[in-house]
Specification:
homodimer, about 280 residues, alpha/beta, three-stranded mixed beta sheet, 11 helices, 9 strands
Chain lengths: ~280, ~280
């Protein structure tokens, strides 16, 4: 394989391009906007770029790096130029919705999710080695060609990512817990604080807030489109996670209402142990 | 003023001792345990230490650095040895409950909360300069002598803390939002994740969890006693904050149930702005 296409030149597309070019591939890019194409070339993220999807015709593998809702339309735009051997793969952060939309259009499709990002978005934030030591989750379905999975996996390993394989549904359920639920939980914390009606108390809260509040509120203060995307395309799993969360929150409220301090302490003892399972103390960064 | 007492030689007592000795005060310490007294002397946190509270008789100001529930008992132990001019001040992280318990015992009491801490607890984690650039909140009541407030404030400034003054109730309400609510919110997130019944999904969640989950779950995985202390001694304000939080969480759930994506986006747009008020982008650490 020598030529790789990237459809969508944002942060992830740009980072993939930089890494793949540095590994000797010819990288071709497509964006909706000519100025993005020009910047991608001048940043060295792609060898050539165009607003015309036919540019990707020679690519043996094409990374779909658009927002979730634009992935299936991108595939439709590409269909006239694809060879049956062309492998399509995506980088979307939910998988079942993408699989449902894309597999009927192109069976040689390897759904995947490289789990890397930055606080800043967009092509201009691109950098090399974004995927190093990050999970790269491949979520094939029964009809996904094994040889194509192997090729995407080889690329992911060349980026020095940790490759995992699971079903689209299991991916979506796992990320609902560890990525999507925290956004809803954290955003609700910020929204709750702003309900404080005493401006003196609110001003004091602004002054006293420090690392604990900073960390707990971080993902709830991010890009609004990102939170909506999670809820919209992973609606069922996010709701299941939120219902479980609400139950646990109500347990906590009940313990405090009833002054059940031993029960509350047992809960905190449990949550400390759960966090140790997520982040073993010796590995904490 | 030349002699300062510290009752309770844990992390905060130890840090205060190190800083105050370096500023030329003679520092006397009291702990329940002789071996803690010995370690405090050898660490240089105090000049002399004893399990006998009469050691603090010569101190012009005494810092009460025990856990919340032990503050009033400490004052009772000290009463036989106090001169009416002796200033008592505390470092408790809730204020109304402390004020209610201590003011009737000793009117020359300056309730305060230096807002500093570390991941590790205990005397052995003591260090210099823990209070530099941290808030030091003084919460006097009408009967608190102005001259005593001024002396505690001068000490706090000498530690290079940011000094704030407010009522005990306003302190407790502000910290409910920015310190206590985040612990309950974050612990409930950990508890919710552990309710996942599919062990494959849970294993995947462990592997995929990264900075977003790390940050949002951090304060919920801390010392169980700390979370219980917040809920127990700030019960009313913590419950008010939790009720407001539950309302906002339910709004979020409702938007997702109803696929009201524009409403959800408006919420996230609001929470992004709220976070910018807490942590202006140019100041973020």
């Amino acid at each position: 394989m020598s030529t790789i296409g990237i459809f969508g030149l944002g942060l992830i597309g740009g980072c993939l391009g930089l890494d793949l070019r540095s590994r000797g591939y010819q990288v071709l890019g497509v964006s909706r906007r000519q100025d993005t194409c020009d910047r991608a070339v001048s940043l060295g993220a792609v060898d050539r770029a165009s607003v015309d999807p036919s540019l990707l015709a020679p690519a043996e593998m094409i990374f779909l790096c658009t927002p979730i809702e634009a992935i299936a339309p991108a595939v439709k735009q590409l269909l006239p130029f694809l060879d049956p051997k062309t492998i399509l793969t995506d980088v979307g952060s939910v998988k079942q919705a993408v699989v449902d939309a894309v597999v009927p259009l192109w069976s040689n499709f390897v759904p995947a999710h490289p789990m890397a990002g930055k606080a800043e978005n967009g092509l201009q934030a691109s950098q090399k080695d974004l995927f190093v030591d990050r999970p790269y989750v491949i979520t094939p379905v029964a009809s996904t060609p094994a040889a194509s999975i192997a090729k995407v996996e080889a690329i992911a390993r060349s980026l020095r990512s940790w490759v995992y394989q699971c079903s689209p549904a299991n991916h979506d359920r796992a990320v609902a817990w560890i990525s999507h639920l925290p956004v809803m939980v954290s955003a609700s914390l910020l929204a709750a604080c702003s309900s404080e009606s005493d401006s003196q108390v609110l001003d004091l809260a602004y002054k006293l807030a420090s690392s604990g509040f900073y960390d707990t509120s971080r993902v709830g203060g991010g890009y609004p489109e990102l939170g909506v995307m999670m809820a919209k395309y992973n609606q069922h799993q996010v709701l299941q996670a939120l219902y479980a969360y609400r139950d646990r929150l109500n347990n906590c409220i009940e313990s405090i209402e009833q002054a059940n301090w031993s029960g509350l302490e047992a809960t905190f003892e449990e949550t400390r142990q759960i966090r140790d399972r997520f982040f073993p103390p010796e590995n904490r960064y």
